[in-house]
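Fold this complex.
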Amino acid sequence: MAVGSNTFPNKMHAVSGFELGTASAGIKTPGRKDVVLMRICDAATVAGVFTKNAFCAAPVQICKQHLESTISRYFIVNTGNANAGTGQEGWNDAVATCTAVADLCGVDSDSVLPFSTGVIGEKLPVEKLISALPAAKNALSVDGWMEAAEGILTTDTRIKGASVQFSYQGKLVTLTGISKGSGMIKPNMATMLGYVATDVAIDQSLLQQLLIDATNQSFNRITVDSDTSTNDSCMLVATAQSDVRVSEGDQELLSLFSDSLVSIMQELAHAIVRDGEGATKFVTIKVESALTQEEALKTAFDIAHSPLVKTALFASDPNWGRILAVVGRAEITDLDLDALEIYLGDVCIVSNGGRDAAYTEDAGQAVMDAEEILIRVVLNRGAISETVWTTDLSHDYVSINADYRS
Amino acid sequence: MAVGSNTFPNKMHAVSGFELGTASAGIKTPGRKDVVLMRICDAATVAGVFTKNAFCAAPVQICKQHLESTISRYFIVNTGNANAGTGQEGWNDAVATCTAVADLCGVDSDSVLPFSTGVIGEKLPVEKLISALPAAKNALSVDGWMEAAEGILTTDTRIKGASVQFSYQGKLVTLTGISKGSGMIKPNMATMLGYVATDVAIDQSLLQQLLIDATNQSFNRITVDSDTSTNDSCMLVATAQSDVRVSEGDQELLSLFSDSLVSIMQELAHAIVRDGEGATKFVTIKVESALTQEEALKTAFDIAHSPLVKTALFASDPNWGRILAVVGRAEITDLDLDALEIYLGDVCIVSNGGRDAAYTEDAGQAVMDAEEILIRVVLNRGAISETVWTTDLSHDYVSINADYRS
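Structure:
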């Protein structure tokens, strides 16, 4: 199940200098596309954000080390096994994977970044993975985005991608990306997996900052089930193959590029929410005029995580009392209940400390019947606003997570 | 659905000086016992703890005021309507209820404490409630515990009670109590509703402290769905009708009494978890040798609230990777992954930063197959331990909260 129609673009624009190749290693399911190799050209810069889970998986730890030591030339992704909670053996397996890619492709081992996603705590079948590398290498192509989008999926029901182009002073700039994720989604630095490439040139330090800023407006603002993965990673590659350089010296271009990056990353993040495990609703939660970013985010995420709000959303039940109860327990210091307003879409449900005088059940019901729902909490005490995106909690969520080991 | 067999005692010992009377007002469901009046004798002291939800309901606000202004003589409880989120009208309705009890029973209005539980945000049908008061008054009896346990239920499937007696220097001391709660359970001061009476004499300030301490070992350590109610309240009454005075001057008696109080309140709290909405498992989560109480509680509650852990519990799936992932995201500063151990029952699942070398799936499965499951996280970094109790997340939880307005 997933919300709305698929948002995967008809056209995934190629990014010169960034190639993707997909193969089948049979890591968990025979015949499934489960290995993706990505090649990055020489002149590129690379930025990454990674999970803050203390138990971050061996490949994530190695990614961080390699990213710091040299410019990355290859990403190697496998699904079906997260290589997390696997101790020293898992570390060795991730290193072996990098070495195999390095030998095959004639680069240094520390220019290879490994990514694994799937079940936690089982040994990575590293021989299977390595045996699929030649096929993945042979498949490398700037047009490999759609196959790669399929190759990085686990419990997802849809491929996820976004692609935009804009012109600046007569020159074309391209940004294209893919993501995957459906459960264990409450990223804390990045989504499960995201890869975005662009053909502009950008210094690494600025690229990293742009990625962090965009992540905080996209992947770090979504939640399906409040669980932060051990393997979340998001990578941004600037191949420098177009004739455009993004820098702080050209604020107009920087702003254009930054907006496009945020837009594409929001699209990729929203696609994860729409494909959230068991999702039947796509829910936007805006907390407005808060005093601090912390209280805005806590209130928004508390609503997004409340099982009672999520089951009411599943039922299309305008049970506004449950939303009010969550705002009440969000630990907002000196909250003025009389100043607070809560809206379902455009319908005011709470004002003056209780149900809004003009509210009718029919008006609330009309908002809740839709597949896309906006919950807006106006605290009327400051200038900070934050938005997060989430799903409902359905029978299918329980089935997906209780009936199968994932 | 509920876990295990009912723990309601065969014998609820009467507490001299504390009477309970139950009646039907048809507040939500015609014929249902939904009004309970409790009478407290002259010499008693009364203590209370209340929800920390900022949107605490009108009756809770009035309870706090009245408890502070004079010694309480009557509790009046209704189910079917929480009188929460009802603004000034709700306040007036709660005051009118107190006045009606006061007029009927010949006491001051501020010696009456009102309690409401049920749906949030709908007007209390106060005339119905008031019309049932004479019947409730006529039913007042020291043997009214069992009927009252039924009269305070909402979505609960079981009555909940506990009763103990102990002898001290040849004198008998009695503690008896009832509770209710099944959903919107993550109390922050008290459960949905709890009433405990004892026949000893205790000064009010000591009584209040004993109640707070016992609450922090019982109702404040349980969670079904992470949602804190707007109406949580727990009351403790000492009627002074026995010949025993509990005071700090007699530490042996104080300790005996305090242990009995914790035991009875844990029994009442556990009964709520066992009857948690859709519950099929009763889960104890112990975090041991933590550095601070805060990190112990955060880790324990994060595990208790994780939808992925809760669905694995429902499936009896020893998916220990999900537990490990939660510990990893619990934001424990400088957590030493290699020192950490995690146990399912007596089976070690995590040590040395990964799956324990001796762990087998069969051993984990045997623990998970049981109805009562212990998850133990040993941080090995300090001297603090905390325990919380929770349920699994089942299809029935979704059905109960999506199919009915509660």
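The first strand of chain B starts at residue 18 and ends at 24.
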